[in-house]
Known about the structure:
Elements: H1 5-26, E1 27-29, H2 38-49, H3 62-67, H4 75-90, H5 107-115, E2 118-120, E3 131-133, E4 152-155, E5 165-175, E6 181-187, E7 195-200, E8 206-210, E9 216-218, H6 227-238, H7 253-265, H8 276-292
Antiparallel strand pairs: 1-5, 2-8, 3-9, 4-5, 4-8, 5-6, 6-7
Helix pairs in contact: 2-4, 6-8
Amino acid sequence: MRSARPFFLLIIICLCVFQVMLASAEETVIEPQWPIPDYVKKLLEVASGEVGYTEGEHGWTKYGDWAGDPYCQWCAEFQCWCVDQVDQLYGTALLKNVYPLYSGTNTGRNWFIRAGRYVVRKGQVDDWGYEWLKGSDRFIASGDYIPQPGDWVFFTWTSDTDTDHVALVEYCTFNSESGEITVHVIEGNKPSSVARDVYDINYSRILGYGTVHDVADITMQFGNRGEKVRQLQEKLNYLGYLESELITGAFDNDTVESVRQFQADYQLRASGIANISTQRLIDELTEQKRDLDPNTWQVIDDEDDI
């Protein structure tokens, strides 16, 4: 009598293949909302080539050695090393300009905040305030921002807002059956190698993202410094509320008074804090003035009319 075991084994294999095919059909890659810069493609190529690298004896890594401490916890060092490799291979100048060079807790996140390219997953940004995606009229909630290839994900392993880990976004996927969005990353020190991993977009340990593109605005107040402050000051100057020599990137007393005067002129609460209602009105009035300003018009020759 012929054994039924091979038949049942074949059924099990077919079922496994079917489940894999079904999962693939349910999960699709989310098309990035913004174009992927060439340097991001190069960075992901370099990082992908490092997958599988494992630290040596006593935790030695080439990434830590490159950064000056071969035995350090090396998630940030790995990503900075990858950026440096792109600079060396292609003659770019990404390190310290597009991406930070750092190793300490919060240093990388704070660099992105000053650069005006940080998106919190939910809540407010330490020492700043709440954020909103450009074009939105409400504060960011978890899952609102879908990270883009080349973004950096900052994690915390505790209940506070200090960053304990960082990873590099490859892409995101959407599961049509569950409705879940997952973030696919490459990360160092995982826990002793470079590896790929996947996180739910609402994972509570994700603090936020250092972004490739400028996608969000943030509440600003006295003491804040960075590109977002500079942009605000430039708009206040354009609207006649701040002298050009006071555009410093630092939210100082002069900026507080300029914001307060603007708020008083337009019947907003004169707090001196550049909140969402204040900034949205500043943006609206700036655009209106630019539309009527002949200095901002672009003359385009139409050869067909010549």
